[in-house]
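Run Vitamin K epoxide reductase domain-containing protein through structure prediction, thanks.
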Amino acid sequence: MDTLLIIKITSSALGLFIAWYIWHKKRHNEKVICYVGQKCDAVLYSSYAKFLGLPIENLGILYYFILLFGYGAHSAFPDFGGKIFIFALFIVSGAGFLFSIYLTLVQLLSLKEFCTWCLTSAFLTSLIFISAIASLEDGLSGFLLETRPVILMIHVLAMALGIGLATVTDIFFFKFLKDFKISHFEKEVLRTLSQVIWLALGLVIISGIGLFLPYIGEYSESSKFIVKMLIVAVLILNGAVLNLFITPRLTAISFGGHHIHIPGELHYARKISFALGAVSIISWYTAFILGSLRSIPFSASNSFLIYLGLLVVGITGSQIMERNIAKKGEVYNKIHGQN
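Sure, done. The structure for Vitamin K epoxide reductase domain-containing protein is below.
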């Protein structure tokens, strides 16, 4: 058995133990003891402890079990499943790596607390993914070239999923505001949609990298590709600000969470939410259109300026819409005798 395979199997086993340990403790309502610091419970019982309604530790158990079984089977039967099987394990390990980055950013930027078990798991997912890359027989570029049709299909489906959900999320957001407030149920719906959008964005990133690396020289000179990657970067930043800063703030304000009250904060946060929603939907549609074109008749800088112009128009429109909703809200409050 080669060293890289041992690393992947061992890391998967350790990760499975960590996920099971957290699951066991939470199931029995026991305090999770951190081996460094005492803030694990603040993370493990936070609003980010579930993804798509499923506890993160359950997803961790599934993730590590798949890898442990997969790499164990590959160790015992080297020809088991062929290259498609290796590709599937590679995708799973890559998805876990990106998800661990997301969870680490949640701890760093939103919760401002750290769980050492979670950080250890993130380290293990990174180790597994790096080992998976290093163990590819034909090298990473050769592997990506061979699986390019599958990667392209994943990329297109992820883009379609992202653009569809971004549209639905904005529609639901405005629909939920018809009574000038967002209920707990509506908040959870928006949270779930947002998480699926993050999933789609993660798939776009993974598949995009897979399409880029074998043709790094060609794509590096492509205006279309450069602009599309800049837009993806905007989507990542936009999503991070919305989900890690603005949404938790809105939740704390709306549902009585612990926070330092600032006059006018709800109105300010709502304006930002509308602006970020406009950025999201314009960026998804623009990236999708760029991906559908063979080439664009503009330089990367001019194309990006056009995109920025669209953002300005979209953000301006979102603020006009927010103002109209705010005015209707004032009338609604007066009619119902609210301050």
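Residues 3-137 form a domain with the de novo design (two linked rop proteins) fold (CATH 1.20.1440.130).
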